[in-house]
Amino acid sequence: MDIKEIQNLIKFVAKSGASEVKLEMDDIKITIRTGAAGSGFETTYVQQVPMGQNQMAPMQAAPAVEAPVSEAAPEKVDENAKYITIKSPIIGTFYRKPSPDKPLFVEVGSVINKGDVLCVIEAMKLFNDIESEVSGKIVKILVDDSSPVEFDQPLFLVDPS
C-alpha cells in the first residue's frame, strides 16, 4: 500500500462519516479515527506488523458520530479570508529545510511561484517535497519545524496578490 492509497483511504473515511476504521493487510495495520472525543481532528495510525503474522481482516466501520462544529471568531475569519491556505497532503513530520545544514525552503515574506518546494514531510521513512500550487507571498507559517502534521492540516497562509 503506497502513500496515495493511504491518502485516498483517509479521504474516503472522512467523507463516509465513520468514527473508526481498522484495516489489516499482509504487513500493514491501519487505524483511522475521526472526531475522537470531541477533539475535532483526525488521527491516523499506520503500523507495520512483523512478517510472521500475515493475516487479512475486512474493514470494519463503527457507527457514524457527528463531530461538534466549533465557531471561529468572526474577525479571525475575515482577517485570513483573503489568504490561500496550503494544507498537508499527507500525515508525517514537517521539516522547513531539506537537511539540518541547509537553508530554509521559505520564510515569512518569501515570494513563491507555482511548483516551488515549500517544505518536506517525512512519512514512513520517505521524504516528500511539498510544492506550492499557487503563486504569491508567504504570510504565515502555521507549523513549527520537526512537528508532526495530520492530513489536510494547514501549513502556510499565502497572499496571492
Automatic annotation (TrEMBL):
Residues 83-159 form the Lipoyl-binding domain. GO terms for molecular function: acetyl-CoA carboxylase activity. CDD domains: biotinyl_domain. Keywords: Biotin, Fatty acid biosynthesis, Fatty acid metabolism, Ligase, Lipid biosynthesis, Lipid metabolism. It comes from the Bacteria. The keyword Ligase applies. Pathway: Lipid metabolism; fatty acid biosynthesis. It holds the Pfam family Biotin_lipoyl. Gene3D superfamilies: 2.40.50.100. InterPro entries: AcCoA_biotinCC (IPR001249), Biotin_BS (IPR001882), Biotin_Carboxyl_Carrier/Decarb (IPR050709), Biotin_lipoyl (IPR000089), Single_hybrid_motif (IPR011053). This protein is a component of the acetyl coenzyme A carboxylase complex; first, biotin carboxylase catalyzes the carboxylation of the carrier protein and then the transcarboxylase transfers the carboxyl group to form malonyl-CoA. This is Biotin carboxyl carrier protein of acetyl-CoA carboxylase. It comes from Sediminicola arcticus.
